[in-house]
Structures are given as C-alpha cells and as structure tokens.
Amino acid sequence: MKISIASMNKLSESFLISLSALIALFLTSTVLAQAEEDCENTLQCESSWVGMSDSERSVVFEFAEDYKAFIHRARTELTFVQEAITFAEANGFEELTVSTPMEAGAKIYEVNRDRTISLIVLGEEPLASGFHVIGAHIDSPRLELKGRPLFENSEFALFQTNYHGGIKFHQWTNLPLALLGHIDKKDGSRVSISIGLDPEDPVFMIPELSPHVDRGRNSQTLADFIGPEDLDPIVGHIPGEDDGDVVEQILKYLDEEYGVSRADLVSSELSLVPAGAPRDMGFDRGLIAAYGQDDRLASYAAMRAIAEVDSPQITTMAYLVDNEEVGNRNNTGAGSEYFADLLSRLLYAELGGDYREPLFRAVLRKTKFISIDVNPGINPMNPGAWETGNAPKLGYGVNLKLYGQGNTANSEFIAWTRQLLDSNDVPWQTSTYKVGSAGGGTIGGEFSSQNIEVIDFGVPVLSIHTPYAVSSKVDIYSLYQAARAFYSFRE
To answer: Among 104, 222, 320, 345, which one is most buried in terms of CB atoms within 10 A?
Structure first.
C-alpha cells in the first residue's frame, strides 16, 4: 500500500490540529480550575453566567420556567400550601399520620392549619442524630381586607384594606389586583375565592389622580401623598335600577355567586395581590420579574431540592412557614411551638416508650438549620445604598448573611457551610448591610433561640416588597443546588 506525500501531509496536519485542540482544552480547564480556586480563596469571583455552556444555560432556563409557573399560582401562603401539597404528592410524599412508619427514605409531609407545610425525608441515621432543616417563609407583602371592608364613595363600591408586611404605599396604586383567599361561614363551610389571575377575570385597582388635577400635591412627600388608609380598590360601579346603591349590588352579587353575606366577610381571609404573571426581563431573558419572590423563591428552591433526595444520611426537612413579614406571629408563624411539636412527635414515633425530654433537647442541639430569605442586591438606580465590598450582586450566587452585632452564625458553622458550597461547586458571596442605615431579618432567630445551629442564606433580588421583584435565574438555580447539597450531605 502506497501513501502519497500529500496524504502524509494531511495526516500530519490533522494530528497537529487535534493536538492543538487537546492543548487548548487542557489550558482552558487549567485556567478555569485556577480561576475557581482563586475565587474560593480570594473571593474575586465572576458572574455565574460567565463560562456557562449552552447545555448548562438550558438547564437553568428550564428550571426558571418551572419556578415561574409555580409562583404564578402560589400567590399567598394559602395557595402556596395548596400547590405544595399537589407537588409533594406527585413526588411520592405521603401525609404524616400516627401510623406512618419511621423508615429510612420515607417521604412525608404535614400541613399546619392550611398555612404552613413541612416536607420530610427520613434519613438512614436515627432521629437522635438531629435534622438538616431548610426554613423559609411563604407569605409576602400584600393588602388584606378589613373585617367590614365594603363601603361606597362617590358612587363607587370600594374595599377598605390593611397591609401585610412592609410596603411603599404609592407602589400599590394603578395596579391590576387579584382577590384571593377564602370565606369561612358559621355553618362550618368554606368558600374559596380566586378572581383576577385568569385573563378572562375582572381585576381590581386603586386609582390614582391624573397629573391634570394633581399639580397642587407635587410638592408633598410620598408619606403624605399616599397613606395606608388611601389603599381602597374599586370593586364595583354599576348602580341598581331601583335605589342606585352600588354597594347593595355588590352584596347581591356575592350572595348569588358565592352564597355569602356582609357578615360572612368578618370571618374571611381575603388578600389583594398583583394580578400580572411572572415574566422574563431583559433582552437576554436572564432575569425574572414577579410578585412574591420574597420569599417564595427560597421556598420553591427548598421544595424542589428535597423532592430529589431519596436516601439522606440525616433526616431532612423543608419547613415553609407563614407570617414572617409581620414578625413570625400566630400559631402558623415561626415563633409558634409547632416546629418543636412536630420534631418531638417524630422522635416519639421512633422511640415510643423510650422517649424522654432530654433526648428531644439533644436532637435540637444536633440539628443544622439554614434559614433562607431573599435580600436586596446592588441596584443600578442607587448602588450607594450598599458598601459594595460587602454587598451581594445578582448573578453571583447565594449569599451568606453576616449581620454582625450578635446576629451572625457561629464562625465554625460558617466554615462548615463554605466547605459544603465549595465542594459542590455552588457559587456564593456574602452580604452585610451598611451599619446603622439598613437591615432585615429572617425566621432564623426563632430557631437559634431553641439551641439549634442556624445560618442565614439569601439570594439577591431587586425591588423587594414591591409588586414586582426582580431575580436572576442563575441565582435561583444556585440556591436550589445549595439546598440539594445540604440535604444530600454525608460525613
């Protein structure tokens, strides 16, 4: 067999090209590894989007689509729990009962008064080894109806409202609102309400003055311009044929459509939330604008992560709780005894007659708890609100909240968390507010007081507590990765 010189030249050329490609790949890998090592040690990191392959980006974007679909339906703590039950049961979780076997790998859930949900995967080790818990809250700033909300003004029917959580009042005007919740009647029946999310539904709105008739108020401060008692949405306009009373027409509609009276509204939980759907933001679609990302973003990430854990070493839990925005109050908030009650019942189910209070207290001491809540990221409209060296940036991963003043996790738990994140290639950053001029909290303090080891996580978000907050898709995915790593941890 004869090989021509031309063929030999082509073979040599192909070999050199292949060799060059291998060298380039090796050098690229070396550079990326060095950059990753430098990031871990020097904290001089790049955006998580940099160096991402097309397939990795597709995974992030697909995860974001699932997230948007979920929070579109889960607008309040009540609807979040409803959607979470559906998700949990579709992923093999069963409701906790007195006869539930305490077997490794069992997936169980429990709901507290329709407003808090816990998803649990039992670990290989006994419960005496402690728990790995991720806690987040599922309530968000919103408007609520007062006990006797319906009134008439200027021949309009309106609702009087209160507010839940910290809001800027002027941001809730001229905004399509949906009415969600339920009405409990004296006979024990419950009427569910959902108006405004379907494109065919009517919406409600708090109308602001137009500039044509508002020039005299332009010099007022925002606090004087719109106050909490000004947040009254229009709910009706057509008068009756006989007496012309608009309110009576609304009461007639409520009776005919839902079978409820004015008095039934006293025992209702009805919330007004932004009606718009979550949307991609920006030409590159890297951001999500959506209502309620504080803190249903974290709750969704924890729920998705625990659903993918089949056989953890330590029993894992996603504890998704109500009323953080108003101080962790009531028997569905993080300040209640429900969490300790749930853990003690699980331990009793495992130990039976051998259960003792000191054993339960020892379990709390061995438990690791990650409290996740979003926090403001550097905002291009006002970057000076942060000291940039200690500020979280969108696209740079989860952040460890280092509050100082006795509110930061112990340094040994921070080091343990750093190792967990670095060993699982989860990008992270830190967050410390400007001293004396900013602040925020999570549910973490309620569990630290129970002698549990707690650390606060966050994800940087723009426009928190407004009708539409803005998150980075890659940060949401990074938070999910962090949660999955924590649940899957093995010694």
So the answer is: 320
CB 62 within 8 A of CB 184: no
CB 464 within 8 A of CB 436: no
In the numeric block, which tokens belong to residue 107? Answer: 């997936």
Q: Of the CATH numbers 3.40.50.300, 3.10.150.10, 2.30.250.10, 3.40.190.10, which one belongs to the domain with range 142-274? A: 2.30.250.10
pLDDT at 442: 83
Q: What is the Cα–Cα distance from 449 to 478, expressed in whole angstroms? A: 28
Bridging pattern class, strands 268-274 and 142-153 = antiparallel
Taking residue 328's Cβ as centre, other Cβ atoms within 10 Å add up to 20
Would you say 313 and 490 are in contact if contact means Cβ atoms under 8 Å apart?
yes
| Residue 402 vs residues 268, 454, 462: alpha-carbon distances, Å | 40, 12, 19
Closest Cα partner for 322 from 149, 178, 429, 446? 446
pLDDT at residue 183 greater than cutoff 60: yes
- CA angle 332–337–341, rounded 5-degree value: 105
Q: 355-398 pLDDT, tens per residue?
A: 999 999 999 999 999 999 999 999 999 988 888 888 999 999 99
Calpha distance 185→258 (Å, rounded): 11
H or E segment and range at residue 267: none
List, in order, residues 6 or more apart from 445 with CB less than 8 Å away.
407, 454
CATH architecture of 54-140+291-487: 3-Layer(aba) Sandwich (3.40)
pTM over 0.70: yes
**What does the CA dihedral 481, 482, 486, 491 come to, rounded to 10 degrees?**
90
The DSSP output letter for 254 is: H
| Residue of 234, 237, 255 lying closest to 246 (CA atoms) | 237
- Residue 146's SS3 state is strand
Residue 230 has pLDDT above 80, yes or no: yes
The residues, ordered by sequence, that sit 6+ positions from 194 with a Cβ below 8 Å of its Cβ are 79, 178, 179, 180
Residue 17 CA: distances (Å) to CA of 6, 25, 45, 325: 16, 12, 33, 60
8 A C-beta contact, residue 313 and residue 491: yes
Q: What is the dihedral of CA 39, 44, 48, 51, to 10 degrees?
A: -70
Beta-bridge mates of residue 132: 316, 368
User: Domain limits of the chain?
Assistant: 54-140+291-487, 142-274
